[in-house]
Amino acid sequence: MSPMNRRAVLLGGLAAAGAVTLPSWAHARTTAAAPPIRDPFRLGVASGDPLPDSVVLWTRLAPAPLNPDGLGGMPDATYDVDWEVATDEAFTSVVQRGTTATNRALGHSVHVEPAGLAPGREYFYRFRAGGHVSPVGRTRTAPAAGAAVAALKYCLASCQQWEDGWFHAHRGMVADDPDLVVFLGDYIYEKPSGLPAADKVRRLAFDEETTTLAHYRARYGQYHTDPYLQASHAATPWVVILDDHEVDNNWNGSDSPANSARKAAAFQAFYENMPLRSTARPSGASMRLYRDFLWGGLARFHMLDTRQYRSAQATGSACGPYLDTGRTITGAAQERWLLKNFEQHPATWDFLGQQVFFAQRDDDGDRSTCHAPDSWNGYAASRDRVTKGWIDRRVPNPVVLTGDVHRHYAADLRLDYWDHGDPIVGSELVVTSATSNNPGAPPDSTWYARNPHVKYSQNKRGYVRVTTTPREVRADFRVISDVWEADPAKVSINTDASYVIEEGVRGLRRA
């Protein structure tokens, strides 16, 4: 099938997937003790965390995903779920199949990790449960370690509040046909949108703030019903991290023990609804999300968690807490892990996928005041140690990938941002929100004069398309004309600006 036809199937065929004729394998098993269920694949399918020989395959059984009890309409029973992996979309060449069980303790989610797949190739997968067959998903494994890779195309996305707009960003990413989606946090929002009711394009199934496992599960269930988001998950593997709104706005690792039950519920729901490996399965209010991935000899992704281990955010504008060397945004163990990674250079490009703005932002030109405590600004010593870490260990081409701020940015990185002549030591690509509102005014010329390392900003919704080759990284900052318009025929998705980072050359260049 051609890429265009495949994209058409992924965008238009998900809702009708249950109407196809069932293949013979779908009738092979029944679960005698489990009550019959309606079509449980209302949330689609997904894959993620690709390795050279494996990829996570995900689905969640939920005939009624909007039920506020978070149970998705599933009986309190264990269900066998069959799965298949094939090299073709028609499943004439099945390479692996198996059966796994799921129940309410897992939110009836399914995480399959087939091993022994061939590196650097495309696969198709599907599930069966209760006599129903899921939509077909497409995935791919990572190239073998050290393999020569001509190009990697991936998309960055972040911050998708349900009520604030339609998920056209995911429609655009499917059309771009990337090898990978890197999602940098705020997949759901725990609170209803702050927009006036008249400006909300769609409503939540329930308006309560999510604090319990039932409500977190139901909120994910509603997000997963979006057809563009389903198509994006079905089209390509994702690598995901969470930020604050998957738990609570601006939470940190120093929250009181009274919040540990809420964290545990939020982490459990995040795991149940994301294509994550079993190594990420939470233990109460703890979840190991920082990890790294290689894409042959071309790229390495260091996926960071800047929420779970951070010190409490500074308050006010006095710089003492911002500069305190005893405070951290990564935690000591994650920082040691990252610096240890920097000692080896298995790939041309090192991408640091993380949540919050890395470069300094100076709002008033006064060195005695500090700003943006929720970003790396609020943890300047952590930023210095990580930056010096890649400099001292001679990381060849470091690029930081960021979400959170609901605005596109492109910035160069320095050790001393007050010295505008200090050498550039890396660059940062910041993706705007997919839908989440940003009412703030854009930076003016005075702000750019104080922050000359920031090359670009755009306050529109969208995503970033990154094309990586051995010679360069090209970032296309994609913007959506109107997230309040439901009709895709009336919505355009265009590149607002493009920046290039050349191999061996520190700093961004406008393309």
TrEMBL record:
PROSITE patterns recorded: TAT (PS51318)
Domain PhoD-like phosphatase metallophosphatase: residue ranges: 156-477
Key words, A-Z: Signal
UniProt-listed Pfam families: PhoD, PhoD_N
The Phospholipase D N-terminal domain, residue ranges: 43-141
InterPro entries assigned to the protein according to its UniProt record, in alphabetical order: Metallo-depent_PP-like (IPR029052), PhoD-like_MPP (IPR018946), PhoD-like_sf (IPR038607), PhoD_N (IPR032093), Phospholipid_Metab_Enz (IPR052900), TAT_signal (IPR006311)
Protein name as annotated: Alkaline phosphatase D
Gene source species: Saccharothrix australiensis
